[in-house]
Write a structure and sequence with these properties.
- The chain is α/β, with parallel strands linked by helices.
- The chain has a single domain (2-13, 26-224, 231-275), classed as Spore Coat Polysaccharide Biosynthesis Protein SpsA, Chain A, CATH 3.90.550.10.
- It has eight helices and nine strands.
- It has helices at 3-8, 33-39, 70-86, 106-117, 176-181, 195-205, 237-242, 244-247, and strands at 59-66, 90-98, 125-129, 133-135, 149-150, 171-175, 220-222, 259-265, 270-275.
- The strands form two sheets. A seven-stranded mixed β-sheet has the order 5-6-3-1-2-9-8.
- The radius of gyration is 18 Å and the shape is globular.
- Bound molecules: uridine-diphosphate-N-acetylgalactosamine and manganese (II) ion.
- Uridine-diphosphate-N-acetylgalactosamine (UD2) binds next to strand 1 and helix 6.
Length: 280
């Protein structure tokens, strides 16, 4: 029998992965990538993993905007690669790195990650995650839902509460259909802040509701840090946020322009180094 036809016989994994253990402690410490590679040596290049004995519920691309945060990425991978495997995900990790010298554009990097991930595989769930947020309970399923899902709703740095009701930053999960419906993120947010609130307004304008996991289960560690150089708050975001409904169909996936400088398949992730241009 061919390998392919054998795979088709696998039955669907259970809706709730059977071997979860609940809460665990996340330590912020120096972690060597070599050690993470040893522990995860059975992953496929590009940080691809999937359950061996059942067919995963979803095909999940995890997209991480990135520049100059290697220590955080090592911690994220150390905790998240075993976590995603335990949850029986069929997943791939995409680290989207902005080249130097231009103001950071987190949201545009998310759009790039989406556009590049779908060239690899027919992912149907996209989880957009900051590099510095790590869940503290493996029952917090890294999966998509009927509605766009805000997953960073219970962070230690905010006393496990929402700092405001409409917050939609940190980690969000969209099915492909949901993400296309809002035309992705805006490409127009340079520097820190606002792009997450604009994304929230897109979801509402598209007639969708957001959902959140039970905050007891979605407890997560947000690594404390200083604001990065090149990611200063610009203060121009206010009217962009308010005009989400008006501009979302012109500004997003359908207006995305970028140049891939490098695409490296690391053992633990695919790293896409990209020139996203700069603010005029
Ligand atoms: C908040 C939001 C975040 C985003 C940001 C404003 C939460 C929990 N977090 O995080 O989602 O909306 O405000 O833009 O709501 N990064 C780099 N290198 C850089 C700069 C940023 O890798 O030089 C990446 C990295 O993945 C980081 C993310 O961008 O986690 C967000 O930047 P941040 O951590 O400086 O922002 P923060 O913690 O205020
Ligand atoms: Mn942060």
């Amino acid at each position: 029998m061919k390998e392919d036809s054998k795979m088709e016989e696998l039955s669907l994994c259970p809706e709730f992965p059977p071997n979860l253990t609940g809460p665990f402690i996340v330590e912020v410490k120096n972690i060597s990538i070599m050690d993470v590679m040893t522990v995860n040596s059975h992953l496929q290049e590009g940080g691809r993993g999937k359950p061996k004995y059942c067919k995963a519920q979803q095909k999940i691309a995890i997209i991480i905007p990135f520049r100059n945060r290697e220590p955080h990425l090592a911690i994220w991978l150390h905790y998240m690669l075993p976590f995603l495997q335990k949850q029986q995900g069929d997943f791939g990790i995409y680290v989207v790195e902005q080249i130097n010298n231009t103001t950071f554009n987190r949201a545009k990097l998310m759009n790039v990650g989406y556009s590049e991930a779908i060239k690899d595989y027919d992912y149907n769930c996209f989880i957009f995650s900051d590099v510095d947020i790590i869940p503290m309970d493996d029952r917090n399923l890294y999966r998509c839902s009927k509605n766009p899902k805000h997953m960073a709703n219970s962070l230690d740095k905010f006393a496990f509460r929402l700092p405001y009701q409409t917050i939609f930053g940190g980690i969000v999960a969209f099915t492909q259909e949901q993400f296309i419906k809002i035309n992705g993120f805006s490409n127009r947010f340079w520097g820190w802040g606002g792009e997450d609130d604009e994304l929230y307004n897109r979801v509402v304008a598209a007639g969708m509701k957001i959902e959140r996991p039970d905050p007891k289960i979605s407890r997560a560690k947000a690594i404390l840090h200083h604001r990065d150089p090149g990611n200063e708050k610009t203060g121009k975001s206010f009217h962009l946020i308010n005009e989400a409904a008006k501009f979302m169909h012109m500004d997003g996936l359908n207006s995305l322009e970028y140049d891939v400088i490098k695409r490296i398949r690391h053992k633990l992730y695919t790293k896409i180094t990209v020139n996203v241009g700069s603010q005029e």
